[in-house]
Amino acid sequence: MALIEIEKLVKRYGFVPALRGIDLAVERGECVTLIGANGSGKSTLIRLLCGLSKPTSGTIRIGGWMIPGEAEAVRAQIGLIAHKPLLYEGLTGRENLVFFARLYGAKPDRVDAMLERVGLSKRADDPARAYSRGMMQRLSLARALLHEPDVLLFDEPYTGLDADSSATLDSIILETRAEGRTLIMALHDFERAARLSSRIVLLARGKVAHDSAEQGAAVDAAALAALYAAAGGSSGRINP
Amino acid sequence: MTAAFLRAMIAVARKDFRAEARSRELLSLMGLFSLLSILIFSFALELNRTARLEVVGGVLWVTILFASILGLNRGMALEREGGGMDALLIAPIPRGAIFAGKLIGNFAFAFTVGVLLTPIMSALYTVPALQPSVIGALALGTLGIATVGTVLAALIGATRARDSLLPILMLPVALPVLIAASRASGGLLTGAANADAGAWLLGLALMDAIYLLVCGALFGFVVEEG
What we know:
The complex is a heterodimer. Chain A is an alpha/beta fold. Chain A has helices spanning 42-49, 71-75, 93-104, 109-117, 133-145, 163-178, 190-196, 212-215, 221-230, and strands at residues 4-13, 16-26, 31-35, 57-62, 65-67, 78-82, 151-155, 182-186, 199-204, 207-211. In chain A, strands 6-7-8-3-9-10 form a 6-stranded mixed sheet, sandwiched between helices. A 4-stranded antiparallel sheet of chain A has the order 2-1-4-5. In chain A, helix 3 packs across helix 4 (109-117) and helix 5 (133-145) packs parallel to helix 6 (163-178). Helices cover 86% and strands 0% of the residues of chain B. The A-B interface holds A 47, 50-54, 72-73, 75-76, 78, 80, 82, 84-91, 95, 99-100, 102-105, 127-128, 136, 143 and B 4, 7-8, 11-12, 14-15, 18-19, 22-23, 78, 81-84, 86-94, 224-226.
């Protein structure tokens, strides 16, 4: 049984369809990248997976738990890193992590371990509003990993990051992959998608237009760009 | 109420207190507005002592209500800035614990401002505002306002016109609390018809109980994206 099972998933905002019947099964340990033009449904799918939004119809199962019926159990297994840091700028880095550790029931010693892991130990007691964008995103990673989730969801996490911060995020993503976690990322960067992922799913107009697992072939950045163009997209980047 | 619920509720409230202790943004904003408001009312009613005594309860509660709206708007803006509300919503905690935690913070800030106003009211309006029954009325009234405000601020948090929408939505919904609190406080402050003040206080407590039940039940639906 796959860790994440999505069947006939439909999401509409009023009369506007965002997802039009997604079927997807993700095995434990896979790193799946969702690519697609703006409005193709990547972020909507991520929001549905983490329980921030409810499906119009269809089912989502994560670790055997259903969304939205058992969303609280699902949320305990998920970590989300989005383009917004999902942190409180009025608190220090450490206070942010202590707060989220309480919400997730994580052990207090995880806070220092995570600060060390993302390289923020020396700035842990500075207010988060004094952090650079890269530092905020590293703190966001620490928050998402605090409770050692099975599934990590990334919604365009590289937005606004410079080259150094992007490289740090790359290495942490590769580390979490090596730990056996299941990753689902929404990205615009074909080269990065091809380098980091074990599987690439192209979304177009709310449907799966291409799934590298079904095609059985490794996908490189150039092939992704061609698929993306064929699906009607035009703005994806081949190089970071 | 389970231990997990209580733990999450206390964590959310502590987070708000800690952030406020560092920035003092909400209390200074609400406090300054309240001070200016009762000063302006005092000057406007300066020549007529009878009128001042008749409206003193209304002045107090209109000031607290608008100060609370300011605080709720700013508090929700701070919650949205870094995606804080989404972070709360993806945590494995009951929606009710988020509501209760946010309510504790909102109530504490509004009540603190109300209590700080009482000696100034005493001085400007020559009424005995520093008495336990007035503080009790303040607690009940600000609890009602904070309860309604916590849900409405969350409801309009995702809309574009949120800053202007909160007062438009909140004033009619909070009107029963405003009337009961004004009548109760007015009676207590002027010393007239204390039996009436007691009845209004009882009504206020009942309204608080109803608002708490209804708003607590609605919060989960309000913050869920359909």
